[in-house]
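Hi R.,

Here's the input for the flavin-adenine dinucleotide complex you asked about:
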Amino acid sequence: MTRVHHPRSLEEATALVAQLDEAIVYGGGTAIQILLKQGLISAPDYVDLLHVPGLSELTHVGERVRIGAMVRLREVERDPHVRRALPLAAETYGHVANPRVRNTASAGGNIAHGDYRLDPPAALMALDAVVEIASTHGVREVSIREFFTDFQQTAVQHDELVTAILVPRPAVGTVGAFTKMRSLSQNDWPCASAAVLMVPEDDFVDVRIGLGAVAPTTVYVAFDLTSDMNARQAVDVAIEIADSVMEPLPDVRGSANYKARMGRVAVEESIRRCLEELDRD
Ligand SMILES: Cc1cc2nc3c(=O)[nH]c(=O)nc-3n(C[C@H](O)[C@H](O)[C@H](O)COP(=O)(O)OP(=O)(O)OC[C@H]3O[C@@H](n4cnc5c(N)ncnc54)[C@H](O)[C@@H]3O)c2cc1C
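And here is the predicted structure with flavin-adenine dinucleotide in place:
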């Protein structure tokens, strides 16, 4: 018999996942429903987070935007404050699948899913976001850059829940761009993606790059753009360091070589868009 639990507090939710050995946490269910239909997962207990207070809220706490785990992807994409404070996040969440999936999928479920092709983690890595994780032992924070530990693996333990994603507001003058390369259809998963954030510092620009779909996990690299580098040199450096972390997995969306080539195109496109906005072309 399958039991679906609807906890009404975070304490109740964390107690349930601590007690129930094989429970599946239910966010928006978009990934779970497909895996269930494919017979790849099954569980006697589901813990639905929909009614846990606070998890569906998108708020601003000091210099950070707090995206509750049950906030829908569509809300991150469309929220006017996110669009102003974190345009790279709004842009990237808007690239996930189609409006139907984005209206249902949750921000916490998205990262907890741990798929290497997900779009949001590339932008969250460039933005230096932090994941808030709760259990009966308390709350801990993990950098999104350390959150994806291996293929389909994350830092979330069986008795833990993702409760929020905390994103620092970038400094004034920061620019960003997300490029998604698709090989099958417009609404499909990427065969490669690149989120770039350029943060102006005193005498250089901090260039941060998150890469999706080109390694067993989302990966992150960074470099300093100095005033003597032109656009071509910036693109060359970005591609060189991106190449050093790309290990694409071949599948229906392309061979490893094809995905690496698309990864380079995505990096170049995002770098050039940022440079144009910085007026450095
Ligand atoms: C047709 C289709 C196309 C897609 N295309 C894309 C795409 O182009 N780009 C992209 O990025 N994604 C894509 N996706 C994936 C989509 O982003 C994920 O399915 C979705 O984000 C998962 O969120 P969810 O809330 O529905 O998670 P769920 O299905 O509810 O859960 C996913 C996993 O996370 C766990 N989980 C959920 N919430 C929590 C929590 N708060 N704490 C701990 N664990 C939790 C669940 O137990 C499960 O293991 C696509 C999905 C579909 C169905």
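One thing worth noting: The first strand starts at residue 3 and ends at 5.

Cheers,
M.
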